[in-house]
Design goal:
The chain is an alpha/beta fold. 36% of the residues lie in helices and 13% in strands. It has eleven helices and twelve strands.
Length: 388
């Protein structure tokens, strides 16, 4: 047994090399619980081989249950897939598009939530409408979105819950309300929010999130929620997407059929053998998130960011963190002063044991619950060392 999770403690991450890891928006370290869960699956397969598969499939229901509780949705509507990109691409390829349908997407987004929609537009003759994501930081973003929805029929609004290069927390709940008022659906890429920054999934049509960032699971395990799976066409179905797809394997003759109906649900995209080890690691990691509470993680990470932001400003950085608390996530991005390169600064900090990132020309700090507030003095000292 491992000790219970404790905010501000790295006890569950004894292998983590960096002394200060403020880079959860990139890839999080694996906890002892996650590693144990992954090893358990590997050892079980090594011992039992095919006999282990039934149990592995049954455990996926535990994954759905934990994910459903964290999202506040029905577990039966959650699919377990390989990545956020796969989830978004699968939905974009499975909608019954009509030529001329419109999709609203946002400038500043990570390409995972633009490229699949651009591909769908090329393939099906759709129109893309772009809005600046930064317009939602105290600007007229909602008014712009409402104007687009009012002026021309829109089929889908695709947005990230948190912007990767500014940390802006998008008002996805209000955006969903506007979309639905005008007959559109909303797709939320939640990978930079789920597990650390709260959002309400009640009115969201689709939510996708990989597990390797704020959920602190391994790569190759992700989640996709759809409020109404029947709205998707089974273009990507696999062998386990059929009703009674396994019955021909248990010894009875003449049960191999190719006309069994396709299931309208998560199996539509799961469809085959899954990454059981990765999913077990993600499930273990999500249980830690559930035990601590997303609201508590959010408050703690923002206390950490509150402690470092004044130093950045003092040293000449331009903070991109919203001045409106409701629009803040667990990410703080800051443009470096003139003559400084964000990538070089991130490398220099890494060399002294402080892991941060440098997307889109900004220095990005993304702490989570294992980060202690006692780390701040060391980060401040390092920043002064490189910039004074």
């Amino acid at each position: 047994m491992h000790p219970p999770p404790e905010i501000g403690s790295r006890a569950l991450f004894p292998s983590l090399r960096h002394r200060i890891y403020a880079n959860h928006a990139s890839v999080s370290p694996l906890s002892l619980q996650a590693m144990d869960a992954i090893q358990r699956i590997c050892l079980t397969q090594a011992t039992d081989a095919v006999a282990a598969m039934g149990g592995f499939h049954a455990e996926i229901e535990d994954t759905r249950a934990v994910a459903g509780r964290l999202l506040g949705v029905e577990p039966a509507k959650v699919a377990v897939v390989g990545s956020t990109s796969l989830a978004i691409s699968s939905v974009a390829a499975s909608i019954d598009w009509k030529p001329g349908d419109r999709i609203v997407i946002f400038k500043g987004e990570f390409p995972a939530n633009t490229t699949p929609w651009q591909q769908a537009a090329r393939r099906y003759g759709l129109d893309l409408v772009w809005i600046e994501a930064n317009a939602f930081d105290g600007g007229d973003g909602l008014a712009q979105l409402e104007a687009v929805l009012r002026d021309c029929p829109v089929r889908m609004v695709a947005v990230s819950a948190v912007q990767f290069n500014t940390g802006l927390r998008m008002p996805v709940e209000a955006m969903a309300k506007l979309a639905h008022q005008h007959g559109a659906e909303i797709f939320v890429d939640a990978i930079q929010a789920f597990g650390a920054t709260p959002f309400d999934s009640t009115d969201l049509d689709y939510v996708a999130s990989g597990g390797q960032k704020w959920l602190m699971g391994p790569p190759g395990a992700a989640l996709l929620y759809a409020k109404d799976w029947s709205r998707l066409e089974p273009t990507l179905a696999g062998w386990l997407s059929h009703e009674d797809g396994l019955v021909f394997l248990w010894g009875d003759p003449d049960l191999l059929r190719y006309d069994r109906p396709i299931i309208a649900g998560p199996a539509l995209f799961e469809g085959g053998t899954l990454n059981f080890a990765g999913i077990a690691g993600l499930t273990a990691a999500m249980r830690i998130t559930e035990a601590i509470g997303i609201d508590n993680i959010y408050a703690h990470a923002n206390a950490w960011l509150d402690g470092i932001e004044p130093t950045l400003v003092e040293l000449g950085f331009t903070s991109l963190r919203s001045q409106y608390p409701a629009r803040r996530s667990c990410i703080l991005c800051a443009k470096p002063p003139a003559g400084q390169h964000a990538g070089n600064l991130a490398t220099a900090l890494g060399e002294v044991g402080i892991s941060v990132a440098s997307p889109d020309g900004a220095l990005r700090f993304s702490p989570s619950w294992p980060n202690g507030l006692d780390e701040l003095d060391e980060v401040r000292t390092a920043l002064h060392q490189f910039l004074d």
